[in-house]
From TrEMBL:
One of its GO terms (molecular function) is oxidoreductase activity. This is NAD(P)-binding protein. Belongs to the short-chain dehydrogenases/reductases (SDR) family. Keywords: Oxidoreductase.
Amino acid sequence: MTSHSEFGAKTDASEVLAAFPNAVEGKIVLITGASPNGLGAALAQSLAAHRPELLILTGRTSTKVEAVAKEITTSTPGVKVRIVLFDISSFASIAKAAEEINGYAEPNIDIVFNNAGVMNIPERRLSADGFEMHLATNYLGLSLFTNSILPKVKNSTAGRVVNVVSNGYALSPFRFSDYNFDGKDDIPEDEQPSKAACEAFGIPWGLGYIPPVAYGQSKTAGILFTRELADRLKETNATAVCVQPGVIATDLWREMAPEAVEAIMNALPSKTATQGASTLLVAALDPKLKESPGAYLDDCQVVDVQPFAKDKAKAERLWQLTEKLTGKTFAS
């Protein structure tokens, strides 16, 4: 449960920040995937007006992140902004960024928004480390980066990790038998894409590489990771939650044909970037969510997920697999 049951799909970021008026002041906040006209930028701009101690903005492209930083420092003079450039799909790049962040004089990070991501890459593409790109960016990179800076989050008096996921998770359980979409045809039934969800989303069903299914698997992984991370943080001051921000016209759709994006925007209820940011802000600022570790939020409220996305055994199995794939034993 959240503190404000009246919040919903059309709630704006400004309304959430007004409901928690002192929750941002003096905080150190990190946002991945900060680029102009995106969810990360809307989030950063909304937070900047409420006197955070420091905003750490990350991204892969310097011109994009710098544009967001410049807009913040121009509109809200006095707000301290740091930029960290790295590719979240690359383990080596993550290690370098984490080393930089862990070297900051500030001992803590209060809020981490894992917002960076990719969606619906038309052709199967592998990361520099050899992983399917949705999996590498939306999950393996997210989990590795989070755990690499987790000691600073645990040093906060009320640290919170907010992972951006999607209701697209419903398309696919995590495919332990073929997480890389290598073309195996002996995938157990409980790891196969959901025929009902594919039909509902208008997506062809199959066991091979289908972009929305690969995207969905990566988001299921994000939900399972969030729940396991929150469980492992129970004895600390920190917790983790995840968020479905909604359909928003951002650069996330860049891999899709413009006419396909237009059709989706016309068919589904869409949100402005600040309406999408509102659910992330509830996830980060509402103290009541400490009672719901690992929660999944949609339209500013905690909602349930399908059984395969909350299975404790699968979450633990994924955690162990992730340590193996990334070559890192996670700190929590």
